């Protein structure tokens, strides 16, 4: 019985590991029943290497769920170095063409299927009603629940048409918070039910998985949603009628690990109705062993019913079986992402360079942990088209503006900001640079809430490569 419980517990655990090849412990634990693997950018050298890695994992056990965060926009693992070929959800929502959203999602699905990934932790189903939200922003389709719901359903349809399981996240909604669950336990403000429509739409579209959020919902429970039976079993399972696989966001995120603890959080999550546990970026084999042991011990003590563990493992296996029997990837129009980026681009004034060399000055805030450090920028995209393009990155709340102005010379300043409405220092710096260079172009690559004091401005609604390319083309187009 103990060996069977250990196998069931293993099926509910989805760990990660660094590197381009699977370590022996991961292969050994897959053979012993591990239900899935979560990949990150540190597992992706190039696409052929990634395909070899996933093949080595799947060869141990067909139907293993191999998941990755590939949302488009700023959150990409396959194309972190060069930037995503697909625009952010915010751009898709701004264009508001359900068919295009489905095409873009199918493109993402086809790209994942081609390298052996069968689970995408997307789409984001959060309704971003709070512009101060530090972690969602342009990852959301928008601030209107009806619009978000339509695009979530379209994204699920497109992604899963390629045989890749979708994952609507972050239940019951992360859009009204002002904290980042990677760093602390956020509090959901307002009526949580106002953000449920996109999850209903995902369920109606047949989404294979739903991911929980490490957030506190005071109107329902003081515990993080991931560990709340009232939220997972009561709200998601009973009220919304979802019977598919529920995945907990990474256990090491401080919204859970520093409030309940990793092993305790794992037990409470399974008891609440969660089926799979991401043992993510900063954890390894020791954490897998500890979580597995905690689950088995909880069954032994009676805290976690054995039937609940059987049910959870069964849902993992059922989703794995879906990926094996799902429709094979179909040809996809590779231009859909670019079409969205061009239509989402907002331009005010004349942003054409008219032969001038640009100096791109990026006012960079702290990196969004969900996105990670990107290897591309508007400056790098412009430099591919305009040799001699300069680029300066200014970070921190006291940026050295004199450095940028001294380097300017006869160049045209292009000032890049991200979610400037959230940072007083960024707005002040952008305004100061524009005062010294009135012909400067201010580019917002996050949510375009703040209106800059500039004659020329643009907003891309996300930091994908295709969005930067669309803007670069507009800047290099001859004045009509």
Description:
The protein is an alpha/beta fold and 480 residues long. Helix content is 40%, strand content 14%. It contains 17 helices and 16 strands. It has a six-stranded mixed sheet with strand order 11-16-15-14-12-13, sandwiched between helices. Strand 14, helix 16 and strand 15 form a beta-alpha-beta unit. Helix 1 packs across helix 12 and helix 10 packs across helix 11. The longest helix has 20 residues.
Q: In summary, what is this structure?
A:
The protein has 480 residues and is of the alpha/beta class.
Question: How is the biggest beta sheet arranged?
Answer: 6 strands, mixed
Give the structural class: alpha/beta
The strand line-up of the biggest sheet is 11-16-15-14-12-13
Shape: globular
- Between the first and last Cα atoms, what is the distance in angstroms? 76 Å
Low-confidence runs: none
Please give the structural blueprint.
Blueprint: H1 2-11, E1 13-15, H2 24-31, E2 36-39, H3 47-60, E3 65-68, H4 89-95, H5 98-114, E4 119-120, H6 145-160, E5 167-171, H7 197-204, E6 209-212, E7 216-217, E8 221-224, H8 229-239, E9 245-248, H9 254-257, H10 262-272, E10 276-279, H11 285-301, H12 306-325, H13 336-344, E11 346-348, E12 358-364, H14 378-385, E13 390-395, H15 401-408, E14 412-417, H16 424-436, E15 441-444, E16 456-459, H17 465-476
Parallel strand pairs: 1-10, 2-3, 3-4, 5-6, 6-9, 9-10, 12-13, 12-14, 14-15, 15-16
Antiparallel strand pairs: 7-8, 11-16
